[in-house]
Design goal:
2 copies of one chain form a homodimer. Chain A is mainly alpha-helical. Helices cover 56% and strands 7% of the residues of chain A. Chain A has 8 helices and 3 strands; from the N terminus they run H-H-H-E-H-H-E-E-H-H-H. Chain A binds a DNA duplex through helix 2, helix 3 and helix 5.
Chain lengths: 176, 176
DNA sequence: AGCGATTAGATCGTGTGCGATCTAATTAGG
DNA sequence: CCTAATTAGATCGCACACGATCTAATCGCT
């Protein structure tokens, strides 16, 4: 495959030689089995679980024209008259550099409404549009359905949520 | 802020009206406090924890010129002579559409070496380059340091890793 | 009132993720 | 052998994330 020439890849260095360099340090990087390089790395397990969640939700939300993040925004808006971009950011742990393009796409799709606050023209208030309210109702049961489909006790899953919330809070403290 | 006119934002619909639409369904979307719309959503807690991990690692890895994903690739390569793109994908739960550009950037940065397998020209073998072996040694202790900095018992964190691995496996089963 | 500092969003560039599609290399079946 | 199917990567377009920077609106201080 590859186009034309099979992608040159200049032989800068032989592979075994590189591995030897590491071995020369006298200490393996991780004690895991060759097939599982991320033993003792909770960060990786969270990363992998998030990937898996995202893929599953993508399947379930795509028929409704939503991405996972767009779904989260709709859920966050479903409980309030409206939220400012900053408030959405607090709830979703995101900044305006992520939210502004996202909200513009959602507005273009008719899911939300953006409007400048009349008291403070710096503030943008975001609210559900009718299509957004409709679709958030359609996908309301998705999270519970997903968890129900897993072969794991619901009590364990609840405990895991508490633990993840705690972990996230601790990590945010540390990041300072 | 904003350029010229304060971003028109055509008033397609009033916000309260949208919220009313949802309330009319007779059932709140989630029973949580207004400030915490994601009660009972483990997916969100995992998402938020992953964001927090990623931000913290970004801080710690940036001085070494690594992103989090690049770091994972280096760790995966540190245990083997080399790995094919497909093998890396199995370990990292990623496909070639993500790995190929990533590996090309890492090769350009001198972190890894890519080479066509001589037996099967379809296969690309990836190995640590000297700079990659050097930097993976420098950041070897980062994961443990991060966890140590948290105000949580190490035993709890180990249990969480087991639980996350299980959750990821279950989600991947469900996704079909 | 006037002006520097602060604040809320927006913009830009880079790096993931991923669905869809493409190509070249290998394999399978007649 | 020769072609169809399979396989391993690569490419493309779009949607997050985020550091860095910008602008407009508001606030604070004199």
């Amino acid at each position: 495959m590859e186009n034309q020439t099979p992608d040159p890849i200049e032989p800068t260095l032989s592979g075994p030689q590189a591995a030897a360099l590491l071995a020369a340090r006298g200490q393996a990087v991780a004690p895991g089995v060759p097939g599982q390089p991320f033993a003792n790395m909770l960060c990786f397990s969270v990363y992998a679980a998030q990937l898996a969640f995202n893929r599953l939700y993508k399947q379930l939300l795509a028929p409704h024209g939503l991405t996972y993040l767009q779904y989260l925004v709709l859920v966050a808006l479903a409980q309030a008259q409206d939220r400012t971009v900053g408030e959405l950011g607090e709830v979703l742990f995101l900044e305006s550099n992520t939210l502004t393009p996202l909200l513009k796409r959602m507005e273009a799709a008719g899911l939300v409404v953006r409007r400048r606050d009349t008291q403070d023209e710096r503030v943008v208030r975001v609210a559900l549009a009718p299509a957004g309210a409709k679709v958030v109702g359609e996908v309301e049961c998705v999270p519970l359905d997903v968890l129900s489909a897993l072969d794991m006790p619901m009590g364990d899953l609840q405990q895991m949520k508490v633990a993840m919330d705690r972990l996230g809070a601790e990590l945010r403290k540390t990041g300072g």
